[in-house]
């Protein structure tokens, strides 16, 4: 089976968007796919390009051939350079200010959640130590009471 990485058209009639998909080369353009790797939306400025780099590397590694347009997208994201063994491969995808702000807000939320988990973990550990100390103290009192009798 010849496997290709190509674009699957989605969206409205005059507002096309695409999904980057892995598909058997004999299937129709919008037919059944093996796996979806990402999205490409050419409408906004700059275009939205999101491709799962790990999965793209995997499919390139097992011999999937990208179409010309997908090859251009993979060059922009730096995945072709990574696949060819370049250590300094970087993504040249432009990110809009709204996406940067959304990513920053998401990072802040993730950091807050991590801090909350850490705080809860420390509080649980402290409570556990206090309970252990209280149990040891009550055990000592019981042994002292037993020695007095």
Automatic annotation (TrEMBL):
Keywords associated with the record: Ribonucleoprotein, Ribosomal protein
Signal sequence bounds: none
SUPFAM superfamilies xref list: Ribosomal protein S16
One annotated GO biological process: translation
Annotated Gene3D superfamilies: 3.30.1320.10
Basic and acidic residues: compositionally biased ranges: 113-133
Protein family according to the UniProt entry: Belongs to the bacterial ribosomal protein bS16 family.
PANTHER family xrefs: 30S RIBOSOMAL PROTEIN S16, SMALL RIBOSOMAL SUBUNIT PROTEIN BS16M
Official protein name in the record: Small ribosomal subunit protein bS16
